[in-house]
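Hi R.,

As promised on Friday, here is the backbone we talked about, encoded as structure tokens. Could you run it through your design pipeline when you get a chance and send me back a sequence?
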């Protein structure tokens, strides 16, 4: 039986048993640099600052929940990939978070851009990015989407099925267009990540299998087509990957396929795209590789393999999404209710905030772990194990499964959740008729709205019945 207590009645023996990886912090106000964007600090008054602004001012000006994006941090991460992978093409994966301003920043920082739907492509084309620097992905691109992309001069179509190759040939034949493509291949790598975000094992929907020969068939078909220039192959093994062994195996198998293609046709393909999926720190438990280390490892492997096969080293690409956008953004919520429940071995404090699974589905979808901190003040109270939950009608509506917050956490406090820049606003929904939060960037004390807050009138505008 579960007993509920009113806020303020948190006992001295409140839960001590967190998951093993979570250590009880000595100082509940401390910020772990690994998970916060570079300009986040806690001011002398205890409140968080980001981009030179106090989060209490941001909440007062913009309301909560709100995604606060640290522009300098975003640009630094984009540049770090660009510089580490100098000579390669670095495609920012727009599906992690895209707006017209993001398209501009990506263009200004000299990156390329990945899109996965006609919608993302439309946003990209309304930003200053050069269409020739865009690559279009997806396992089921419609004829309309392909027509749109080809007519606008999108630089690369990453083909994913025989049906798609036929559609591209038909469109190009009708309109006198020409398509530059990469063939997406499945390398058979078992990435050590959640099943739904692993994409290179055999039994899933993406790509042409190398093992069963379909990849070679698709490559030869594109190579022979009068409407298509086959530039190379593409491999993406999954997301939130820390173990670089997966990328290494994929790079080896992809290079071998390039060598086999050259042996079969005499032609050498100029490009090799190794995809994205580089992990980031959501909690102190995650330790991602630096872009420099990743670049060094991938470069060494491909160069070594190419030497072995007597191939010229192709122009290589990577496609970081989360590793650029994820760490840049904190989600800011206001605490509405605090509740204590008895569980085995103690108690758990449920802290309900004014957002939830509609603005971050990842914990419910993948069991993703996040952390949080009290943002509107520092507290001298001792740490207690909390669960930060949303306001939706689902028991699984959890934002942070386990986190130590101060015992005096109370309604009206602000809570910040770091690493909320990737796949949070991008995957947000209107569940429970909840308008989606805005994305506000901040730099040198100045706030800029990238995406405004949705309103109930926006939602009612879709409801044309009576
Ligand atoms: C999702 C995706 C990416 C980006 O993945 P991240 O985990 O955000 O780095 C890159 N390439 C392709 C093809 C993808 O589907």
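Update: got your reply. Pasting your designed sequence below so it's all in one thread:
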């Amino acid at each position: 039986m579960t007993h509920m207590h009113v806020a303020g009645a948190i006992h001295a023996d409140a839960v001590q048993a967190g998951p093993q990886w979570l250590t009880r912090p000595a100082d509940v106000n401390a910020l772990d640099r690994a998970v916060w964007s570079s300009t986040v600090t806690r001011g002398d008054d205890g409140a968080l600052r980001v981009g030179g602004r106090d989060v209490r001012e941001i909440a007062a000006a913009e309301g909560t929940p709100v995604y606060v994006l640290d522009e300098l941090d975003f640009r630094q991460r984009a540049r770090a990939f660009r510089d580490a992978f100098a000579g390669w093409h670095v495609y920012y994966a727009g599906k992690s978070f895209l707006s017209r301003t993001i398209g501009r920043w990506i263009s200004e920082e000299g990156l390329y851009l990945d899109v996965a739907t006609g919608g993302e492509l439309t946003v990209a084309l309304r930003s200053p990015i050069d269409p020739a620097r865009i690559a279009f992905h997806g396992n089921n691109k419609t004829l309309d989407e392909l027509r749109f992309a080809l007519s606008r001069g999108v630089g690369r179509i990453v083909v994913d099925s025989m049906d798609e190759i036929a559609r591209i040939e038909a469109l190009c034949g009708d309109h006198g267009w020409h398509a530059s493509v990469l063939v997406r291949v499945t390398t058979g790598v078992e990435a050590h990540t959640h099943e739904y975000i692993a994409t290179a094992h055999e039994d899933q929907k993406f790509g042409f299998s190398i093992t069963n020969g379909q990849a070679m068939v698709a490559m030869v078909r594109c190579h022979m087509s009068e409407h298509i220039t086959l530039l190379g192959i593409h491999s993406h093994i999954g997301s939130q990957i820390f173990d670089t062994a997966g990328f290494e195996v994929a790079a080896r198998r992809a290079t071998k396929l390039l060598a086999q293609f050259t042996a079969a046709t005499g032609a050498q393909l100029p490009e090799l795209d190794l995809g994205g999926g580089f992990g980031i720190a959501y909690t102190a438990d995650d330790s991602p590789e630096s872009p420099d280390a990743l670049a060094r490892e991938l470069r060494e492997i491909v160069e070594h393999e190419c030497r072995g096969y007597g191939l010229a080293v192709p122009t290589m690409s990577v496609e970081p999404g989360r590793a650029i956008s994820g760490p840049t953004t904190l989600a800011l919520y206001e605490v509405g209710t605090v509740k204590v429940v008895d569980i085995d071995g103690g108690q758990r404090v449920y802290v309900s905030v004014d957002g939830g699974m509609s603005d971050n589905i990842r914990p419910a979808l993948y069991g993703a772990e996040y952390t949080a901190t009290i943002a509107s003040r520092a507290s001298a109270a001792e740490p207690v194990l909390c669960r930060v939950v949303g306001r939706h009608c689902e028991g699984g509506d959890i934002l942070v499964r386990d986190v130590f917050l101060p015992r005096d956490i109370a309604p009206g406090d602000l809570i910040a959740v770091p690493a909320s820049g990737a796949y949070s606003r991008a995957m947000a929904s209107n569940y429970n008729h909840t308008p989606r939060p805005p994305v506000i960037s901040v730099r040198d004390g100045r706030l800029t709205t990238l995406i405004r807050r949705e309103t109930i009138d926006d939602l009612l505008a879709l409801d044309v019945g009576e």
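One thing I noticed while checking it: The chain has two domains: 33-70+327-460, 137-320.

Thanks again,
M.
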